[in-house]
């Protein structure tokens, strides 16, 4: 199974360590196409020369490569707690392409998920509190 994991990059990297743990769990089900989303050296600021193959990529090249991966994926899993334009864009395309897509939203006081995600009939949205709970939602979705 090819899994496309989506998480905030330029929208903010506070949850990057969590993305890495989710990606490691997803990797027990198949190939995660977007492992760099959890990489500690990918900052919100700009390009990361240490990612092999990504050095010197233009935004257009990143966009086209990621959309090719999205098209080739069997399932999309997005961590949507940190609002990200890129993740929202990827989810909209996933819905248009009829992909199975799971959105994981961490419950935090004073925050609520965008109605465009929470209200989309094409997305499976699950709230969670702990990492273990998020993994449980992934297991239910992918099994
Ligand atoms: C590294 C640091 C900043 O920019 C980079 C290189 N950019 C990206 N590399 C790979 N995927 C990207 C990049 N920028 C956005 N994406 C895709 O959009 C990922 O698949 C994420 O799921 C999503 C994040 O969007 P933003 O709007 O938070 O950046």
What Rg do the Cα atoms give? 14 Å
- Counted by DSSP, the helix tally is 5
Classify the helix fraction into a percent range: 25-40%
Shape annotation: globular
Order of strands across the biggest sheet? 2-1-3-4-5
Measured distance between first and last alpha carbons? 11 Å
Query: What oligomeric state do these chains adopt?
Result: single chain
Structural category: alpha/beta
* Number of strand segments: 5
Q: Which residues form runs of ≥5 with pLDDT under 50? A: none
The main pleated sheet reads as: 5 strands, parallel
Instruction: List all distinct small molecules, including ions and cofactors, that are bound in this structure.
Output: N-(furan-2-ylmethyl)adenosine 5'-(dihydrogen phosphate)
Mean pLDDT: 93
Q: What is the ordering of alpha helices and beta strands? A: EHEHEHEHEH
Proportion of strand residues: 15-25%
């Amino acid at each position: 199974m090819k899994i496309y994991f989506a998480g905030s990059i330029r929208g903010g990297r506070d949850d990057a360590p969590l993305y890495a743990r989710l990606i490691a769990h997803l990797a027990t089900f198949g190939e995660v196409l977007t492992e760099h989303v959890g990489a500690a050296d990918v900052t919100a600021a700009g390009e990361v020369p240490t990612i092999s193959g990504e050095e010197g990529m233009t935004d257009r090249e990143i966009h086209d490569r990621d959309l090719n991966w999205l098209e080739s994926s069997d399932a999309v899993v997005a961590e949507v707690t940190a609002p990200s334009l890129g993740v929202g864009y990827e989810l909209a395309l996933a819905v248009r392409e009829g992909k199975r897509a799971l959105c994981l939203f961490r419950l935090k006081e004073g925050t609520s998920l965008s109605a465009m995600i929470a209200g989309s009939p094409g997305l499976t949205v699950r709230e969670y509190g702990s990492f273990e709970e998020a993994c449980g939602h992934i297991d239910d979705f992918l099994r």
